[in-house]
Amino acid sequence: MVRFENVGLRYGMGAETLTDISFAIERQSFQFLTGPSGAGKTTLLRLVLLSLKPTRGFITMFGRNAATLDKDAMTALRRRIGVVFQDFRLLEHLTTYENVALPLRVQGKEEATYRAEVIELLKWVGLGERMHVHPATLSGGEKQRAAIARALIMRPELLLADEPTGNVDPSLARRLLRLFMELHKSGTSVVIATHDLALMDQFDGARRLVLGDGRLHIYD
Fold it and tell me: The dihedral of CA 26, 174, 92, 87: what is its sign?
C-alpha cells in the first residue's frame, strides 16, 4: 500500500529531520510507530498522508509514485486513508453525529444514504447515547472515540492514528486499541503512533517502527 525508499526530509538549509527512511506498509498489516518525543512520528505520518513532501527519496502510494500525482489524484488517494489526529479536530458547532458524518457530507452524499451507518458506527465505539451532544460536553475519551469514528466512516484501507491514547486513562487506552485491532481484523491496515511502551507490550504480534535520531528501525 505504501512504500518509502531512502526518503529524507529537511526544513530549509538545516540538517535532515528524517534520513534514509525505507519501509513498507502492507495490506491488512498492523504496526506501531514509536520513538521519543520529538523523534518525528507526526512528521512521518504527514509524509504518509501526502500532506508533506520529502526532500529526497521516493514514496509510492497504492502503486503510484506520489511525486507525479496531480491534485485530483492526491485527493482520491487521501480518501482511502483515515486519520485520527492527536488534537481530535472536532468542530464545536456540530454534534457528535454531525462530526462523524462530515466526511460523507463533504462528498455530497444525501443523509438518507448514510444515517443508519453513522448511527451503527457510533454505537460500535460506545457513543450511541452521545450522538446528539456537542464536543464541549464530551470527555477526552469520548472525543477520541468520536474522532476514531469519523476516521472510520469512509471505510479506509489504511488508518493512521497519532497518539490516539495519549489523553485517556490506561483502561480506556486498552479499549481503544481493541477497537483498532477489530478494525485490522476486518481488513484495514493500521499504523498507530505512540510512545507508550507498556501499552505496546500488550500486543505482542504487532510490528514496531522505531524512530530515533532521524532514522527508522524495524522490529517484526
Answer: negative
Kindly report the pTM of this predicted structure. 0.89
Lowest mean per-residue pLDDT among 43-57, 144-158, 191-205 = 191-205
Residue 158 is predicted with a pLDDT of: 95
Q: Which of 25, 20, 22, 24 is nearest to 10 (CA)?
A: 20
Residue 175 cell numbers, joined: 479499549
Q: At what angle do helices 96-106 and 111-124 cross, to 10 degrees?
A: 130
Q: How confident is the model at residue 202 (pLDDT cuts 50, 70, 90)?
A: confident
Pairing state between β 30-34 and 189-193: parallel
Can you say how many angstroms the Cα of residue 144 is from the centroid of all Cα atoms in its chain? 12
Residues with Cβ within 8 Å of residue 83, at least 6 apart in sequence: 45, 49, 151, 159, 160, 161, 162
- With the C-alpha atoms ordered 180, 137, 123, 146, is the resulting torsion angle positive or negative? negative
Paired with 25 in beta bridges are 2
For residues 44 and 53, the answer to whether their CB atoms sit within 8 Å is no
pLDDT in tens, 134-180: 999 999 889 988 998 999 898 899 999 998 877 677 777 777 888 88
Residue 219 and residue 205 in contact, taking contact as beta carbons nearer than 8 Å: no
Residues belonging to the chain: 220
Residue ranges covered by each domain of the chain = 91-155
What is the maximum alpha-carbon separation in the chain? Answer: 52
